[in-house]
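Subject: sequence -> structure tokens, single chain

Hey, anyone have a minute? Need the predicted structure for the following. Not urgent.
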Amino acid sequence: MNAWYLICFLSALAVFIAFTNQYVLKMQTTIAITTGSVVISLLLIIAVKMLGDNTALYITQVVADIDFNQLLLKGMLGFLLFAGALEIDLVALKKQRWELTTLVLFSTLASTFIVGYLSYYVFHLLNFPIPFIYCLLFGALISPTDPIAVLAIIKQMNAPQGISIQVEGESLFNDGVGLVIFTTIFAVAFYGTEANAVDIAELFLVDAIGGVLFGLAIAALGHITIIHCKDINTRLLVTLTIPSAGFALANIWEISGALAMVTSGIILGNITRSKVSERRGPEGTRYIKDFWHATDSFLNALLFLIIGMLIVTMPLSWEIIGFGLLMVPVVLIARFISVGSPYLVFQRFRQYDKHSVKILTWGGLRGGLALAMAAAIPSDMVNIDGMDLHDIMVIMTYVVVIFSIIAQGLTISPLIQKSIHAAQNRAQK
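Reply:
Had a minute. Here:
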């Protein structure tokens, strides 16, 4: 099947599930789409393995042909991050800059090592001989919270601004740091490269800092162009060039396109939007805001559908699924320790919502980025107890991601409601 036709049909399926969800399940949209696609995928697997259905077999083969890495990391990611960053409040972000910096740098690194050590201990208890370096690699790919999953779910729940900006801001920025950590451990694991401080610093400066600086540059160019545009359609087209050509150029230059999109989106969403509104009136930006909101919703629906359907491409086994289920509490424990310990220091200088650590822990969702990194692990290169390391990593990651999106996404609402009530009570005093 033509790749374009496949995307069109999957998009229609995502919209159909979203529409049906309004009257049947009444879940948050992205959770409903992921749940629906997992159910459809399981039915396809049953149809192929038990019934030998040729149509179901053809569909699974078509889905297996999707290059998820290319689709997400080289394409959709730029649009999704840019759209999400447009809605971030820069003033609120600046108020939480020290907390966010700590969560992005310290917590991501701490979680990587905690997951690495805990998973190695669990596998040791199970007499499964997986080397520590691969446990650490799993910690690196699963520790960064996914900005797409977080923004799609958290921002629709009207959480208090303080906690909301922490969850959303951390998820937007920590993927750059997470990717540096993953790339470093990946090089040590598969190429025998020594992880020295100079190489790590150079990688971070080129990838992360380079991405931020490039984002500032294209935001400045976009800002000047947009405020001098007289035609509203041209202004919209200018914004489209940033997550398309801008994101592509960042990837070609091997700097963080993700951080570039977040940086440019925040600037255009705050500074540029304000300037255009002053010059052209509210209508001058409302059209663009509505367009990107619709684009964000559409691409999120498509992405979460594909995430759910990826299960049909995996060589499933009960043993590896069991490993994945064991990793769920490991990842949550690491998340709780890595975000909770900085708050012991934060609370000495500022008062926070008492539910902050719980929301950051349970709301630290994983998604497509973790799966894309897991899929980058080479196939047929490392064999552990008769199983391919690539398959182990992908399936374990998938189990954690699906649990994160569905189970955590469905149950985060009560915590946020408690936070809202606490904020209201403080306001009344």
